[in-house]
Every structure is written in structure tokens, then in C-alpha cells.
Amino acid sequence: MRLSTRQIVISGILVAMSIILTRFASIMFTPFIRVGFGPIPIYISSIVLGPLAGGIVGGIADLLGFWFNTFGAVFPNPYVFLASIVRGILPGLLLILFRQKRLTLLRVFLLVTVTELFAGLLLTTYGLTLIYGVSFRVLLPPRLIATLIQIPIYGFVVYMPTVRLKILAWVRSL
Questions:
Q1: 3-state DSSP of 14-52
Q2: What is the pTM of this model?
Q3: Fewest C-beta in 10 Å: which of 11, 35, 65, 108?
Q4: Please, what are the domains in the chain?
Q5: Reported confidence tier of residue 25, pLDDT bands at 50, 70, 90
């Protein structure tokens, strides 16, 4: 699958948005819990442009974002990097697998929930255990609470521009 020039440009804009929202518009409650809107452009790229573009947006946003602001980490963690890529691949892949032509709020919530539980909760939490040397069982409860709070916010914010503002149909018509 090849990406068109327009898809590459849109992907670049979404990478920039993700970096800004993750690195400069997030709140760190502890070294283990960051609340922000950084994954939203990655979700949008996956839903609108497909899993390939979504994975690329997630990976590039995480790598470039790490060099701008590491949030205290000494090295880029492969599990956190993989979680960003999975956030970009999984929603678009699930849409293809379930052959969903019409995107509803419930379907967006389902996509975000499955992706956040796997990528945001499991992969990222495991990556944080390697960075900080804290047990997975210790990190999981507070991260689970943060994830359960973020899922409905992410779902609603992803749904609004992609479906309600008809960006999905506009990009697919290009």
C-alpha cells in the first residue's frame, strides 16, 4: 500500500499535533501517569488514513517527541515506542477486519477501549516498569484508573472530528 502526497502531508500534520499534545500539553501527575491528548491524532490517522499511516504517525510522533522532551527517561523504551505504533495500527486494522463502513460513537469507543487497554495500559505500563524498576502490579492500579478516565474522553474527541465534522469522508474523497 502506497501513501499519496496528501496522505503524507496529513500524516505530518498529525505527527506534529501528537508531539505538541503529548510533550507540551500534558500533565504529569507522577512519573508513571501522564494525562494528555497526545494519542488522539494517532487514532485519527489510523481511522482516517488506515493502519499503515496510523502506525507510521504513532512511531514517528513517539521518536521525535522523545527527543524534544523525554519526561525524565534516559533512553527511548521499545515498549512505549511499540505502544505508540500499536495505537496507530490497531484502530484502523479493527475497522478493516470488521468491515465497518459507518463509524458510530459506539464503534469509536470500542476501538479506543481495545487499543488503550492493550497499548496504553499493558505495553506502556510494562515499558515503565523497565524504565523505573517498579513492579508491574504497583503501576497497574493507578494507570488503570487514568486509562478508564481517558478512554471516554479520547473516544468522544476522536469521534467528533472524524465523523461529525465529516473529515473521514473528506479525506477518503481526495
A1: HHHHHHHHHHHCCEEEECCEEECCCHHHHHHHHHHHCHH
A2: 0.90
A3: 35
A4: 5-173 (1.10.1760.20)
A5: confident
